[in-house]
Amino acid sequence: MHRVAVIGGDGIGPEIIAEGQKVLDAAGERYGFDIGWETFDIGADRYLSTGQLLTEEDIQELSRFRAIYFGAVGDERVSPGILEKGILLALRFHFDQYINLRPVRLLEGVPTPLAGKTPRDIDFVVVRENTEDFYVGVGGRMKGSKRFEHQIVRNLYHVRFGLDIESDAEEIAYQIGLISREGARRVISYACECARERRKKLTSVDKANVLTDVYGLWREVFSGVVSRYPDLTTEFAYVDAITMWFVKNPEVFDVVVTPNMFGDIITDLGAMIQGGLGLAAGGNINPSGTSMFEPIHGSAPKYKGMNTANPMATIWAGALLLRHIGEKEASEAVLRAMGRSIADRVVTRDMGGSCRTSDVGDYIAAMVRKG
Ligand code: IPM
Ligand code: MN
């Protein structure tokens, strides 16, 4: 029996998560385990009616789970940033989910916009740092002179600093990125282990030629960590260049480790080359705590409740969840069943089909039951 927390969230979140649950339950039936789901009402609706984003009580309850299955956040009635920072990022930070694992893999039968590339060419994993960098949420806007006090509270450390700003510009804004030695070390070590289990190649992403302090530290830590992995082939890539290589030569990548913000950007590109956002999944992982699995796309409010959204990214995230809780065979079966669904053209409109969200979930669940 595995207990899993469920946060459907906003927009299409609840309906795609329901399909994911259907498929994971089928995997449980076939591979001999039960999933005890516990649903949490967290998202825009609750925020609009009670003003609550993520409460102490939510955190208390969620901390009893090893895995959270998460749909999406974002709602047109709420200004951008409120739900994203107040729920999604708050969960990632609170549970110290310092790894954001994003497989970029072209499945058989899925078209890629990259001419001449096949599933053999597009199969790598992005390991995105998930708690630091420009995501620490430190910044300000001002006219004239002002003093700012900032605090960053993490499991690893507390950082507190003040800034006295005097300026005669009409208005300025600043945002601070922070990387810590231990924050970089732990995610780079994880990426090394990951590469060891794959094709033994690791690429580090940064912009150390311009942002010399933050990414200078990142590079230094990378060099130190990989020196303990002589079996790996390693390289550095600047973030601008890697976007070019993802398009031109995706086959050269195996594991790519990246600071948070660049990871956000390059994984949307990764999603496109693997067939679109409808297929891209991610895991927010704390190896010794509460992890969270989600599609990397947003809540697509326009399509809410229409039963047309593609549930495959969420189902793929479910496969990552199963793997994380030790159900490796079931996880692989879910991916195979997705493959069948694609081969049999049981796909939603974004993938050129005419199936509804629930048809796709039903079909993949049936394929999983067959084994
Ligand atoms: C993602 C999303 C989030 C991010 C947003 C919604 C905060 O774009 O998971 O990639 O920037 O990390
Ligand atoms: Mn993103």
Folded structure, characterized:
The protein has helices spanning about 15-30, 45-50, 55-60, 80-95, 180-195, 210-225, 240-250, 260-275, 310-325, 330-345, 355-370, and strands spanning about 1-10, 35-40, 65-70, 100-105, 125-130, 135-140, 145-155, 160-165, 170-180, 200-205, 235-240, 255-260, 280-285, 290-295. By secondary structure, the protein is an alpha/beta fold. The chain has three domains: about 1-105 and about 275-370, 3-Layer(aba) Sandwich (Isopropylmalate Dehydrogenase); about 110-130 and about 180-275, Rossmann fold (3-Layer(aba) Sandwich); about 140-175, no CATH class. The strands form three sheets. Strands 2-1-3-14-13-4-5-12-10-11 form a ten-stranded mixed β-sheet, with helices on both faces. A two-stranded antiparallel sheet has the order 6-9. Strands 7-8 form a two-stranded antiparallel ribbon. A hairpin with a 4-residue loop joins strand 7 (about 145-155) and strand 8 (about 160-165). Helix 1 crosses helix 9 and helix 1 (about 15-30) packs across helix 10 (about 330-345). The radius of gyration is 21 Å and the shape is globular. The two termini are about 20 Å apart. Bound molecules: 3-isopropylmalic acid and manganese (II) ion. 3-isopropylmalic acid (IPM) binds near residues 84, 88, 89, 264 and 296.
